Amino acid sequence: MAHFRRAARGVRTRPAVPAPQTPQTPPPGRVGPVRWRPTSKPGSDSRSGRRGRAAPHLWRAGLGSGPATPPAPLPPAAPAVRRLPGARPEGRRGGRESGPGLRKAGRAAPVRNLKLLQTLEFRDIQAPGRPQCISLRTEQSTVLIGSDHGLIEIDPVTREVKNEVSLVSEGFLPEDGSGCIVGIQDLLDQESVCMATASGDVILCNLSTCQLECVGSVASGISVMSWSPDQELVLLATGQQTLIMMTKDFEPIMEQQIHQDDFGERARKVRVWNREFALQSTSEPVAGLGPALAWKPSGSLIASTQEKPNQQDIVFFEKNGLLHGHFTLPFLKDEVKVNGLFWNADSTVLAVWLEDLQRGENCTLKTYVQLWTVGNYHWYLKQSLPFSTCGKSKLVCLMWDLVTPYRLHILCQGWHYLCYDWHWTTDRSSGDNSSDMANVAVIDGNKVLVTVFQQSVVPPPMCTYRLLLPHPVNQVMFSAHPKKSNDLAILDASNQISVYKCDDSPSVDLTVKLGAVGGNGFKVSLRTPHLEKRYKLQFENGEDQEINPLKFSLITWIQEDVFLAVSYSPSSPQSAIHHLTVAPSEADDEHRQLHISSSVTVDGVIISLCCNSKTKSVALQLAGGQILKYFWESPSLAVEPWKNPGGFPVRFPYPCTQTELAMIGGEECVLGLSDRCRFFINDTEVASNITSFAVYDEFLLLTTHSHTCQCFCLRDASFNTLHAGLSSSHVSKGESLRKVERGSRIVTVVPQDTKLILQMPRGNLEVVHHRALVLAQIRKWLDKLMFKEAFECMRKLRINLNLIHDHNPKVFLENVETFIRQIDSVNHINLFFTELKEEDVTKTMYPPPVTSAVQLSREDPDGKKVDLICDTLRVAMESINPHKYCLSILTSHVKKTTPELEIVLQKVHELQGRTPPVPDAVSAEEALKYLLLLVDVNELYDHSLGTYDFDLVLMVAEKSQKDPKEYLPFLNTLKKMETNYQRFTIDKYLKRYEKAIGHLSKCGPEYFSECLNLVKDKNLYKEALKLYPSDSQQYKDISIAYGEHLTQEHLYEPAGLVFARCGAHEKALNAFLASGSWQQALCVAAQLNLTKDQLADLGRTLAGKLVEQRKHGDAATVLEQYAKDYEEAVLLLLEGAAWEEALRLVYKYNRPDIIETNVKPSILEAQKNYMALLDSQTATFSRHKKRLLVVRELKEQAQQVNLDDEVPQGQESDLFSETSSVLSGSDMSGKYSHSNSRISARSSKNRRKAERKKHSLKEGSPLEDLALLEALNEIVQSTEKLKDEVHNILKMLFLFEFDEQGRELQKAFEDTLQLMERSLPEIWTLTHQQNSATPVLGPNSTANSIMASYQQQKTSVPVHDAELFIPPKINKRTQWKLSLLE
């Protein structure tokens, strides 16, 4: 056993020089890599309770006896308090924005590619020796590099060496360069760096003081050092094939032998131990298992390699040792060897480090770094980086960043450090016209999988067609030219650009293979691209390509033979944007080269480049968020800051991984989405929950964390409207928002169509038709009179077909023939008819995004939209082909507001007798069968009977379910009748009584009694009077019956008019007497030639009825003129307060004595009555007003008590006496309404009585305040009506020298009016007028005030009582005072 000899802590020790027989390097081929299981959920630890501490995860060692391989460099575990893989540096957002959960939807990326975001280089680092391994200090953003001389710390951003620690001078490494550092780990808790040498020393180094401390050593040497992710445990693999586990303080816990006796030469195993060093599982022997080993950070799989007879695979083990899937490397057997496997922090990318095996003396050997991703159970090779195997560019080690998941660190032998940042992108064509095929390209090694979404939606990993390239592909770019958006250029790992064009070339390209379409007899209507040409990228410095295989990034195909590319300075934080063009001399050369024709240097690191194909604008984003505008067409190639509409430079607060250019409200803006789901328009953050977005035409589509897809029209939008729309995604916003599956992301939008392609988290694709896109496309089709396309889309997606007309009624009605010819289907036209309704769907279901002239000039022909469309379409169909569209013509009659079923039946009857048959014509039987689908058969039978055509009746009856025994006898009986009586019988059977009496009136006088009985029975007097001459006896009989009917209905005056018209004067006189129409009664009396006595008696009778109706003036006129009794007439006038008319009669008949005996006493009596009335009104008004103020005060106190003490209201509360009775009107009114529910069945008079009873003036009644308001209102209005009466009596009092009584009355009335005017504002206050308003909210509101407002709303009055809160009007312009009395 190899024991760990621990040195005393705190004492700097120098270990004894090992004996010569002790090897400096571990024995060959004994121990494979050792890997701790990474923490699957960063920041969670149920065991230790500390953030970053790992739970009791398993760890594993790969063992074998194969050929010796250098130990694979180990990525350092995350410090305990540092962010672990997948953690977010910007902080948490409600538990949704931290950890890998935010990227869960990105774990399956079959339609996305890895695109290089930026490259950081540090060349020719000044350090002694040869680099051997690498590690990171995440908190300091520095890199630790171990060499055969010691340790150095570099800052890759400032490109300087921060620290250098020599292990040779301290004797830990030999001076001849044969030493080796096998592991480096930054220990944040101990503020030190731990190193392990192959000779067996474990060293702690404090980089602040550069002090070294050897904490122990292993005599047999160390081949692997690995720290657990929580840095609580460290594991050493020794030269004697043992494993030593220690604590973070280097206290040995256990040492175990790696029992390798059962390992065969060609069969290796994977063994897994837990933290307690108990063996958990051992895999079955796997033939050809390689030495590379990597455990997925999510904890689900362990990756390794396996050599098979004809291939080399990457295989995956479960933690129980069982095999779980594999994929094959794109190399032949014994062509390469795998040096290492490396998972990135969020488990989405697997980096494979391969190296060519020697195949010949003159072969150029290379090493490769390949980045693999998986989606839909298919592994895609997304990036391939070739390096040389000799010289300075030989790869030494690589590792993924622990915080930034898509950042890869690479160290080369010539002290060259490279750092690559990738991000996910969807490579799609950017055209917006119908020629764009909605292509999406997916990189898969040396293949590009292209899916043409306009023609087919193919689930990945399948595709429409594949493009085969000679080398692995690193980038795909579609042409930015709007009319050539289907063309694409492909950059491969050999820095060649292959250009494929989609045109009408008949040539067959062998590099293009059909995928999920075509083959096996399928006829392909697809236009596939062909390889047009290839370019070789020419570097200014040949060494650049060897050191950095991804020298150019963000390559953009701007126009024919012109590309834009970005490169980064290896010595300073600067970027250069290059124009890559073809030399004119090489335009036709087969071996064309792209040269840098011009360049512009930019201060800062360019991380994105986007181009607007319409405006040809190019926007550059720097790592600091600054946005620059690049004038690539300008001769000077100027770069200047992108400015917002306010003229200020635009800068994203956070770097964005996806940028687009779009026109918003007429201004070109930059849109950006960060990897933290923050969405920016220029420098304004409009949302923080966006997972993806796409700009299509004038629309912006976004998916959100709330599982919605929103669509906004940018034509008339603004920042504020977009911000408001995105900030309230939970509110339904009509057509702009729709729900989608959790984690959906936008892939592309099919131009000039309604398809939106979404990718689900598990990798599958879904097509949705967003309502906003659908309606916008339908409106475009309708504007272009493309009715067929619009109809098919609406029918398939269930859009209401009324929109075809309602979008622009005038244009539709002018082009109905075009509509019919395009649809060209009877069934589809019938479907259009059946959906028609009077509603304007552009105002209800599908309001347009903006009000246009079309909507403003909308026609509305008397609200008969359906009738107008039916008539217009029917005329057009009859002119085009009435036989072909016969069923549609019938439908147009049936669908009218009043169905024209008789006309329809007549047309069907005409079809029955048509000979010979007409081409495209419909038989009568087919037409009738179709008609029965639209109309109920019984209704159709009745209408057929109403046509009086028995052949048609029989035809319909045979199609119905009626029993022939029912209808045949009835029809036979009808056929035997006289024609008019037959039709009368049919109409009476159909309950068409108006038509029935019309036919019966033609049957002769003998049928008049039957007709009169039917008229009386069905109240058809008015219709019957039109059927007979006014001088006929039948007319008089009907009129007398009509008058008697009106008399029974207590309609005496109309009855009298009917009697008078037909000459029944005695009946007319009685009717006029009953109605009180004294003028008409006297006119009829004159026609009856009454005697004077009879006329006087009639006058007295009329006067009595008029007095009952309080028409004293009319009664006096009748008595004076017809009964010749002027004295009684004067008395009636005095009773009715018609003083001036009474004086006229007194002086007309020269009876001044009546003035003293009757007139003056009546005037004085009336004055006393008015005074008493005013006293009563004033007292009542004052009493009600005082009580109203008390009630209101009690109610406010009760509400306040209820708010403070939360006392229950209504019937359950016994804590209030009088207060509780006025506390809540709503509670008590409910009780009243319940008790009065039986009244609802009574007459309206009783219901009004119940309403009045509800407003009781009894103190403490529930709605006493309303009753008081109602009573006060009535007092004011009744007093207002007294003005004319008071004015008239004042004149009489003055005339007869009753000045004192007149002034007394005038003063009392004036005081009463003034009292009421003063009290109006106090009674009908503004606050109580608004008592049913909305609650008062705002910055000045308190909790109590808001609750009081809600309580007031809760107890507000019903709607029908709202008029009580309107104050009565007092007309001050009415002149009632008599100035002579002042």
From TrEMBL:
Low complexity compositional bias, start-end: 31-46, 79-88
Biased composition (Basic residues): 1-12, 1244-1256
Domain ELP1 alpha-solenoid: 771-974
Keyword Transmembrane attributed: no
Alphabetized GO MF terms: tRNA binding
Keywords (A to Z) from UniProt: Cytoplasm, Nucleus, tRNA processing
Biased composition (Pro residues): 17-30, 68-78
Region spans: Disordered: 1-106, 1201-1259
InterPro entries reported in the protein's UniProt record: A-sol_ELP1, Beta-prop_ELP1_1st, Beta-prop_ELP1_2nd, Elp1, HB_ELP1, TPR_ELP1, WD40/YVTN_repeat-like_dom_sf
Domain of life: Eukaryota
Domain annotation ELP1 TPR: ranges: 981-1144
Segments passing through the bilayer: none
Cellular component aspect of the GO annotation: cytosol; elongator holoenzyme complex; nucleus
Residue ranges annotated for the ELP1 three-helical bundle domain, each copy included: 1153-1323
Ranges of Polar residues composition bias in the record: 1210-1227
Keyword Disulfide bond on entry: no
Subcellular location: Cytoplasm; Nucleus
Domain ELP1 first N-terminal beta-propeller: 112-265, 267-401
Biological processes annotated in GO: tRNA wobble base 5-methoxycarbonylmethyl-2-thiouridinylation
Domain ELP1 N-terminal second beta-propeller: 442-747
Pathway: tRNA modification; 5-methoxycarbonylmethyl-2-thiouridine-tRNA biosynthesis
Matching PANTHER family: ELONGATOR COMPLEX PROTEIN 1
Protein function: Component of the elongator complex which is required for multiple tRNA modifications, including mcm5U (5-methoxycarbonylmethyl uridine), mcm5s2U (5-methoxycarbonylmethyl-2-thiouridine), and ncm5U (5-carbamoylmethyl uridine). The elongator complex catalyzes formation of carboxymethyluridine in the wobble base at position 34 in tRNAs.
Similarity section: Belongs to the ELP1/IKA1 family.
Protein name: Elongator complex protein 1
